[in-house]
Give the backbone structure.
Amino acid sequence: MDFKGKCAVVTGGSGGIGRETSLAFAKAGAKLVIVDVNGEAAKAVAEEIKSMGGEAIAIAADVTKSSDVQNYVKQAVDTFGTIDLFFNNAGIEGNLTPLVDYDEDLFDQVMAVNVRGVFLGLKYVLPVMVSKGSGAVVNTASVAGLVGTPNMSTYCASKHAVLGIVRSVSGEVARSGVRVNAVCPGPVQTRMIEDVARKISPDDPEGVKARYEAAIPSGRYSTAEEIANVVLFLCSDASANVTGMHFTIDGGRTATGGAVTNVTKTTN
């Protein structure tokens, strides 16, 4: 997977999956545009890439604001000439609360970041790609976009919406040489899953992790690097005729319905 000479834009690029994917793109030769609401954190990732001998710029942006999205697209094009790869990744988890108790303002915030942010990113990046007849987009959905989880109705709704957008827009731009796919991570060893565990059980987050891992056939969380590997594959020529699809990375949890509680190794 060689991305030399290509420009990759990554939203939510300073933490967890976004950071690892940015570093992976840079190692594969891409020039990076690191977009994050935390400008200093984005700058730190850009500096890390530069220390590796790569090229990167950092842009502070709120992905829910059209003006901010248009600005990061403009800066990417002004700096690197075009946008070849787009990891539309920024997202937040919200609270773990029954729907009837869910705060209305927080509902709006989760939907704004996770759905409007994806919509705006596509709205302003796709024309750049369509105009040159090529491009690859990967959007971050979740296994929460495939199944429901009690007390996470808002997050689940937002990630189901991302998959609906991917399926629809992929057909709109396919004949223009632009591919649009999604990744659906399960639990990933990042800040987000640690926060979720603390919200479920402030006194025993490690116990939550143990229960989650017991329901995963592989017996562990995914790593951010493993998600990055799938993103790079979907942006590469190795997936040249893949579009409108979602790829689940969850150690087999969704396939088994989370019912696996005691998995042992087998031998031939």
Observations:
- The chain has a mean pLDDT of 93.
- The longest strand covers residues 178-185.
